[in-house]
Amino acid sequence: MSTEIIIDTAYNGYVFVGWAAGRFQTDHGEMMPYANMFVLSPVSSYESEDYQASGMKAEKKKCLSPEVWNGLEPGDRVKLFFDDKKRVVMAALDQ
Q1: What is the predicted pLDDT for the residue at 22?
Q2: Is residue 14 within 8 Å of residue 40, measured between CB atoms?
Q3: Model pTM?
Q4: Residue 24 near residue 34, CB atoms below 8 Å
């Protein structure tokens, strides 16, 4: 099933585009769960002699659990809330 997503580049926040969850093996051989969400956001408007950017950037955000993206659909505008380890603990629709 394919769905078209139109991203408004004037939107100055995160756009949810997908997720991945599973388990990985640590160096010590134990299996650890992971949950990641993928978002688009505007690049920084900062410019200097050595740096310019334009458009959107794709980001992978570590999440506390897969429940973070429950109810979200690719293309949704979202507000993200982070813990002290920079993991997403909650995502809310930004309408």
Answers
A1: 97
A2: yes
A3: 0.86
A4: yes
Label residue 11 left, alpha or beta by phi (over 0 means left) and psi (-120 to 50 means alpha): beta
Q: pLDDT under 70 in the chain at which residues? A: 1
Could you give phi then psi for residue 39, rounded to 5 degrees?
A: -135, 160
Q: Which two tokens stand for residue 18?
A: 């997908």
pLDDT digits (tens, 9 = 90+) for 40-59: 999 988 889 999 988 899 99
Q: Please report, for residues 6, 24, 45, 61, the alpha-carbon distance to residue 10 in angstroms, rounded to integers and kept in the order given.
A: 12, 37, 12, 22
Let me know the angle formed at the C-alpha of 68 by 63 and 73, rounded to the nearest 5 degrees.
Answer: 115
- CB distance 18 to 5 below 8 Å: no
